[in-house]
Write a structure and sequence with these properties.
It is a single chain. The protein is mainly alpha-helical. The chain has a single domain, classed as Orthogonal Bundle (Farnesyl Diphosphate Synthase), CATH 1.10.600.10. The protein is built from 16 helices and two strands. The chain has a two-stranded antiparallel sheet. α3 runs antiparallel to α16 and α15 packs antiparallel against α16. The model has no long low-confidence stretch (mean pLDDT about 90).
Length: about 300
Amino acid sequence: MDHSVTAEAAFGRRSAGLTERVERQLSALLSDNDRLSQAMRYSTVNGGKRLRPLLVYASGELLNIEAQQLDSAACAVELIHCYSLVHDDLPAMDDDALRRGRPTTHLQFDEATAILAGDALQALAFEILASDEGLQRQPAAGLAMIKLLTQACGASGMAGGQAMDLQLEGQRPDQQALEHMFRLKTGALIKAAVMMPAALSPSLDQPARQSLARFAEQVGLAFQICDDLLDIEGETAIIGKTAGSDLAHDKATWPGLFGVEAARQRIAELSGDALSCLGRLDGNAEGLLWLTERLLNRDY
């Protein structure tokens, strides 16, 4: 029996409990007292895959950090992700009508409420990190986590990537420009999810930190290329959002510019490099191995 496969499957079983852990905490954080809080809850507690929180916990396992020490980071990363989806779906952005199989927030409520809900979810993410009692006892680690997350969602990360994505509509960028946009738009938050636990591991040496960061960068880029493929090949009922929306908006996508088979080859190349990086790290990497497989071989 391949023991590495068995180990990865073991994390797959544990992932259900970790997902429920995040769901409970997100649900407790988000009330439905008024229209704004209802929109925030609608945008978050809605059946998301919680892949980014799982990356936080899996990275923590590699670094021998307990899940309870990472709950705030896991929730904060997911809140940033959910805020980004609310804003991405707006008419001024991607103008989508469906998210996670339900009407997008601006259609369920209205555009102004959706904008404010996204703003408030982003603020809540940083409030959670700043309020974490464990991180308050380790202020350097807490500040490092906040810095990682702010960089991942700001102009040098997700927001900057989204701006580039809008600018590239109707254009044919080369591979380098397209992948740079992907690394900001999607990869930066995935990298933050993997690297935030490292803030609690000051003994991690620089070569190991660099290998972990490169793993996250390659997985993040491959994840977005997979997303592009799903927009072409996926079914709306399965992927939970409108299939073909990238084509309808004349988006710059990897398979659209360079071909479907070339996209698959690029995913395999990036995946191989990512796994090679993991192989250079000591510790329990079964969770990150399992998640890499799930992230890059999905149909939703």
